[in-house]
Amino acid sequence: MSFRKYLEDEISKTVAGIHALSNSNEYLTIDLHCHDKNSDVPDEQIGRILNVPETWATTEEVVNRLKNSGTDVITITNHNNARSCYDLQKNGFDTLIGGEFSCIVPDFGIGIHVLAYGFSLEQEKILNEKKSDLYSFLKYTKSENIPTIWAHPLFYYSTSGHPPIEFFEKLSIVFERFEGINGQRNDWQNFLTIKWVQALTKEKIIEYAKKFDLVPEEYCIEPYQKVLTGGSDCHMGIFAGKTGTKLFVQNLTQKIKQGESKSKLVLQAIRDKQMVPYGASNENERGVTSFLDYFCQIAINMEDPGLLRMLLHKGDANEKLLSFFLSNGFAELKKHRHTMRFLKAFHSSLQGKQIGLIDNLFVSKEYRPIAKMISLVANVKDPDSKFLSNAIYEIYQQFSKIFYGRLKSKSETLLENKFHNISTVEEFISAIEIPASIRSYLGEDSCANNKRIDIKTFLDGLSFPLLAQAILYGAFFASTKVLSGSRTLQRQLSTYTGSQYPKERVLWFSDTFDDKNGVSKSLRLILEEIQRRDLPIDIAICSNTVAKEKNLVVFRPNLEFAVPFYQDQLMRIPDLLEIHNYFHEHEYTKIISSTEGFMGLASLLIKNAFNVPSYAFLHTDWIMFFRKSLKMDIHLVNRSRRLLRAYYHAYDGLFVLNSDHKTWLSSNEMEIGKNKICQIGHWTPSFFTPEKNDRQNLFGLPENSKIMLYVGRVSKEKGVHDLKHIYDTVKKSHPDARLVIVGKGPEEKTLKESIPDLIHLGWANYHMLPKIYSSADILLLPSLFDTFGRVVIEAMSCGLPVAAYNTMGPKDIIDNGINGILEDTKESLSSAVIKFFSAPDLIIKMKEQAIKRSKDYSADKTFDTILQFIETVC
After folding, report:
1. Which residues are CB-neighbours of 5 under 8 A, at least 6 positions away?
2. 20 to 30 A Cα–Cα from 778, which one of 69, 133, 577, 657?
3. How far is CA 294 from the centre of its chain?
C-alpha cells in the first residue's frame, strides 16, 4: 500500500471514529476557516511589498459557494479582521463573527495563525493589540470566553528553521481546539495533527505544564479536553465548504423553532467543544487550482505598487528584488493579449462562467482542445479537486505540444540560416548572447548585430504557449513547495507520535544511458546493481530510444537537438510537469543527479519543490573538457566554472570519483565544504576475470606479439592522437609491438591514416572485453581528464597492467611501477612501456599486482558508501 493510500484510509477511519463518539443527529455544519478579499494584508512579506491581497474573491462569491456546499452557518475568517462578517450582519445575514489572527509565540520567535469567534469590534481591536504575544492573546480570549482554534498547526512563519518538538509540547498546554483537517493542507499534515492531538492525555498536559512552568487554567476553560475542528482554508472561494466542522446542538430542532439563531447555537457549541471535523482527502490538488486562480487574479487585478514603496517597505534586499521582478513580470504579462485572454477565461471557468462566443470564434485550431477543456471546467457544477488538477495538467500538455512543435521548427530554421557555419563555443555564445538593450526585444535595434538571433522574431509565436506553460507549472510548483516546506518537521513528528512516514526512495537523474560513453556504461552497471540488490532506487532518463525496465524510468523528450559546436551528444529537453507528477505519485524522498544537463536542472527544480535532500554525481572533468575539447579561452572557462559552482552549491552533497576533484571542489575556486563531498569508485562485473590468451583469433597476431591496447571512445579528449607517438617510439625498440584499438569515435579516420598497421576492432560486446584484455600485454590510457578510468579497473581485473598519464582518476588507482605505469608526458610514457616490454619478470609481477589492486573496488563497497552518505548528509 502506498503511503498516500495509507494516510487516506487512516484519516477516514479516524474521522469516522470521532463521528461515532456522538449519537446525536442534530448538528449544524460550518466552514470555520475561509477567506475573501478582506484578507487584504498578507502575512508573506512579498505580498505586502507588492501591495496585493490574498484574494480578490468577493464576499458574495464566497457566501454562494458556502451555501452551494451545504453549510448551515456562514462565517468568513479574514486575516486580523472581521469586516466581511460585520457587513453580512448589517445586511441581515445570520453570521458567526470570526477572524484569523497572526500571532507571535515570543519565546520561540515563530508566527502562527489563531482562529477566534464571537468577538465584538472593540474586542477585535484588543485582539490585534495582543497578537504580538500569543500567551497574552490567549489569556484575554479565555477571560472574554472567546473560543479559539490553532489553525493548521504544522504551518508557521519562522526565519530560523522549523520549530522544535518543545514548541508543540508547550502550545498543547495553551490551546483547547486544533484544526485537524485543513482543506489546503495535505493528508500527511492533517494526519499528524490528528494523531498528535489525540495523544494529548491529561497526564501529558500535566507533565508539559510542569516542564514549562505554565498554569493551563490561565489559558483554557477545560485544559485537559482537546478537540479537533475542520475548515477549508479556501482563499479563492472554489473549495469553500468542502471541508468544515459539524457542531452538535442538543434539541437543535426545538431551539430553532423557538427562534434561536443558528450562529449563536454554533458559537455555544464551539465553546462547549461539541464538534467533529469533516472533509475529503487532499494531496496538492486544491493547492494547484488555488495558486493558478491566484496567479490569474494577480495578472487581472494587480496594480503597479510603485518603486519607492517597494524600496522603502520592510523586508530584506532579496525580497525586494524578487518583488521588483514579479511586479515587472506581471506588468508585461498584462500587455500580452493572448495570455491575458487565457487567464481571464480560466478564472471565469473556475467561477462557473463560460467562455464568450466571440472568444471561441477567435480560437485557432491548435488552441481548440484548450478552449474545450476550459469550457468543460465551467460546465461542471461542483468539480472536485482531482478533476480540476487533472484539467490543468491536460491544458499544460496542450500548450507544451504547441510550444515545442513551434520551437522545433524555429530551431531547424536557425540551424540552417544562423548556426550552419558555427564551429566554436565563442561563435555560438555570440549568436545567442542575450542583449542588454531592451530595444532589441522590441525590434527597434534587432539588426544592430547581424550575427545575433533576432529575439523579437524568434519569440514570435512562442511567447504565449511558453508563458501559459510557465504559469501552469508554477501553480504545481508553488503548491508543492508550500506543502513540502515542513517535510523535515513532519518526519520528526511522525517519529515523535509513532506514526508511519514515507519509505526512503531515490530517483537518480541522468541525461545519458544508451550513449557510447563511460558515463552510460557506469549507469548501466549501477542499474544492474540496483536490480540485484532490489534497492529502492530508480534511474530516470530522457530518451526516445530506450525502453523502460525495472528501476529504469524513461521520460520521452519534448525536444531533441545537438549544439553546432559539439554534435557528438544530443541534448534532450524533458517535460518538467511529467517528472514533477511522477516524483509525487511514486513518493520519492531523495534525489541523485548524474548530469549537469537538462535532467540535472529538472532535478534541482524537483528538489526545491519537494524540499528533499539531493546529491550530484560528478562524472566529467568539465574544466579540462572546456579547455581541450571545446577550445574555450580562459574567460569562457571561468564563466563556465562559476555556473558549475552555483549548480553544485544547490545540492546537499557531491559524489566524486577522484581525489583531485575532491580537492578542487573544496578549494577557493568552488568553496564546497569537504564534509559535503564523498569520494567513491567504480567496479567491474563479476565476469571480468583473467581468461586464456587468444590474440591469434582476436587480433590475427602471433602469440609472441607485444600487444598495446586502447579501449574507449576514439576522440580528441581521450588523447588518442598521442597513441601514434607512443606506438612509433615503442616499435623502434620492439618491432613486434602492435597497437589494437577497441571503440569508435570521430577521430577513427584520422587515426587509421596516421597508423597504417593499426588493428581497429570497433565497438566490442561488453562480455567480450575480458577476453580482449586478457589477450593484450598493456593497456594505454592517454586521456588527460578521465575522472576515474573505468577501463583501468576492467583491465586490472583481467590481469592487464595499465600505462596512463599521472592525472586524476588513474593516479588514485595505479601504483607506479607496481601494478601499472604513471607518467607525465607521452615521451616518458613511451620510455616506460619500452622498459616494461624489456622486463619479463616485471610483466608477471605487474599482472599479479593489477589483479590484487582491482579487488579494492567492488559494487558492495561503493553502494554501501553511497547509501551511508545520503543517509547522513542532508
Report:
1. none
2. 657
3. 22
Q: Which amino acid is at 404?
A: Y
Whose cell is 449519537? That residue is 23
Strand, coil or helix: 263:
helix
3-class secondary structure per residue, 353-421: CCCCHHHHHCCCHHHHHHHHHHHHHHHCCCCCHHHHHHHHHHHHHHHHHHHHHHHHHHHHHHHHHCCCC
What does the DSSP 8-state code read for residue 273?
A: T
Query: For residue 29, what are the β-bridge partners?
Result: 246
- Measure the CA–CA gap between 347 and 345, rounded to whole angstroms: 6
Provide the pLDDT for residue 359: 61
Beta pairing, strands 110-117 & 98-105: antiparallel
Strand, helix or coil for residue 59: helix
Contact indicator for 558, 400 with CB cutoff of 8 Å: yes
The residues, ordered by sequence, that sit 6+ positions from 717 with a Cβ below 8 Å of its Cβ are: 624, 625, 628, 629, 783, 785
Q: Are 224 and 203 in contact (CB under 8 A)?
A: no
Of the pLDDT bands very low, low, confident and very high (cuts 50, 70, 90), residue 476 is very high
Residue with cell 543527479: 593
Instruction: Return the number of other C-beta atoms located less than 10 Å from residue 725's C-beta.
Output: 16
Q: Which helix (H) or strand (E) holds 10?
A: helix 3-20
SS (H, E, C) 813-861: HCCECCCEEEECCHHHHHHHHHHHHCCHHHHHHHHHHHHHHHCCCCHHH
pLDDT, tens digit (0-9, with 9 covering 90-100), for 48-78: 888 888 899 999 999 999 999 999 999 999 9
Q: Which of 171-175, 441-445, 718-722, 866-870 has the lowest mean pLDDT?
A: 441-445
* CA dihedral over 790, 793, 798, 804, signed as positive or negative: positive
Instruction: Select from 358, 186, 373 the least CA-distant residue to 284.
Output: 186
Share of the chain above pLDDT 70, in %: 92
Q: Any bridge partners for residue 227, and if so which? A: 177
Q: The C-alpha cell of 213 is what? A: 512552568
State the Cα–Cα distance between residues 869 and 867, nearest whole angstrom. Answer: 5
Amino acid letter at 806? N
Side-chain half-sphere exposure of 3, counting CA atoms within 13 A: 20
Q: What is the DSSP string of 323-358?
A: HHHHHHHHHHHHH-HHHHHHHHHHHHHHTT-PPPHH
Task: Count the helix, strand and coil residues of the chain and give each as a percent rounded to the nearest 5.
Answer: 50, 15, 35
Q: Reduced to 3 states, what is the DSSP secondary structure of residue 761? A: strand
Residue 454 pLDDT > 70: no
